[in-house]
Amino acid sequence: MKRVFIICLVALTANLGLAQNAQKAKTLLDEVYTKVKSYENIYVDFKIVLNNAEAGINQETKGNVTIKRDQYLFNYLGAQQIFDGRKVYTIVPENEEVTIENKSEDENTITPSKMLTFYKTGHTYQWDILQNVQGRKIQFVKVTPIETNTEISSILLGIDVETKHIYKVIETGKNSTKTTITVNSFKTDQPLSKTLFTFDESKYKNDGYYIIRN
């Protein structure tokens, strides 16, 4: 009986510790969300490394994104994507092509404007390691989808403890693909053109672009 009691006590203590760690992780994420939402806009310059040892893939690319509330301008792999709050415009100069789509209603789609809100529902949280990166304390939080049919196994968010800005995102897929996003530059409240998130269809038509509407 004594042994059973000790086992139950250990299990209860372990569960309590996990719950506290989960709450601590959620609290830190909420602090990041609150801090970023206080800015009028943000500009992020980043590096992406895609790695899958089994498939022999190891690619490194750079990009940047400007976000203002739900709107964003995303530059990546030579293409540009604009979201004006209603429609998504993907511009591919190499193909002289523009694709126009309605806003995605898929909750599993993580867009730039949802990068700091996706975790709020449908995920569990775990306090992970603390790293020292060139004098900066980076606390990692592990976010795991509850849904089993998602292609994502887990996401590690590395957060600068002092600034409450995200420094690194490590997404691990169920196909063993690991995508690592490292923030090189994080700027806030920059002067933006009033037309930055406006798509001028006539301009691209005049330049001979093929317009596709989905």
Give the biggest beta sheet: 12 strands, mixed
Mean pLDDT: 84
The CATH architecture: Clam
Q: What's the CATH C level?
A: Mainly Beta
Unreliable residue stretches: 4-18
Query: Can you say what the CATH homologous superfamily is?
Result: Lipoprotein localisation LolA/LolB/LppX
Written overview of the protein:
The protein is an alpha+beta fold. The chain has one domain: outer membrane lipoprotein receptor (LolB), chain A (Clam). Helices cover 20% and strands 46% of the residues. The chain contains two helices and twelve strands. The protein has a twelve-stranded mixed sheet with strand order 7-8-9-10-11-1-2-3-4-5-6-12. β1 and β2 form a beta hairpin. The chain is globular, with a radius of gyration of 21 Å. It starts with a helix and ends with a strand.
Entry summary:
This protein is α+β, with helices and mostly antiparallel strands.
